[in-house]
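Inputs:
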Amino acid sequence: MKESSNSLRSNCPVNFGLENFGDKWSLLIIRDIVFWGKKTYGEFLKSDEGISTNILAARLASLEKEGILTKAPHATDKRTDFYMLTEKGFELIPLLVEIVAWSGKLAEWQENSGVGTPEQIRQVKRFAKTQDKRKIIAEIREAVSKNSYFFAPR
Amino acid sequence: MKESSNSLRSNCPVNFGLENFGDKWSLLIIRDIVFWGKKTYGEFLKSDEGISTNILAARLASLEKEGILTKAPHATDKRTDFYMLTEKGFELIPLLVEIVAWSGKLAEWQENSGVGTPEQIRQVKRFAKTQDKRKIIAEIREAVSKNSYFFAPR
DNA sequence: ATATATCACTTGTCTTATGCAAGTGATATT
DNA sequence: AATATCACTTGCATAAGACAAGTGATATAT
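Outputs:
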């Protein structure tokens, strides 16, 4: 959204959130980490939506600056870093779940949903119909914090 | 985000959501309706964040096209329309609540929070600490569907 | 009834953000 | 030693947003 942030448009909590992650790409990166276990620049780059290299670099830098992500060096390969969620990043899981739930309820999305894996589609439907999301959120958080990810055989 | 949408970047449900409301302004308009009871172009224009006239018109048109908002004529004044949420728009309330909750948890937000009304601040804190959001969502939905709004003496 | 104000926009221009292609430097592999 | 891979950066084209100034329809004031 904005690189050198000093002036917020307002301090409304909705606006505050949007200033942090309300651009076209930030939440897709978080999604890749949470649902697909992606961790590196190269992995994020391969996502279906096709983010540009410069934009990806800019988003990773700003998410790190905002304290949503941290970088850690790869054990053996000095070229690559692992990006992971901070606690502040983990707290975005409920938001992600609600976005998925919103889409999952809509016929428009359902019509084109056939592309995903059966497990993925099953989970989206579950998110959409579950009112109390606490269990879902706890499961996801646990999966991610075990350095695994959610749409996976665990 | 994009005006004449035909090609989605992907059909991931997160991306689907972002293609619908994932720009800098759409959710702020929804917020104005839900939390502040705003209904007209002129009211949206007055919000703290200072949206431009052309952008507001474009967002209202695209939210209407996507079926998130509908327009209804004012009873007496033929110049103005009332914008209101569709059911698809109502379903965005949980998302808004999670954004508020996320911001409300952060010291960064809390430090500058003094500007809001006491009622508003109290509610933000409540959103932030409540795990099961069902009651909150039901209250908001009821307030909005009564053509009222949430941060209000009801 | 006429003049002025208000409302919801549109139009044009400038600036900023994003998209795309082609590098670059450091490390790893063959 | 040569080539490939990884995580970027740089430069330029395009799209989206910000800003200022209209416009047309309706409403209000005189």
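Remarks. The radius of gyration of chain B is 16 Å. Strands of chain B lie at 69-73, 81-85.
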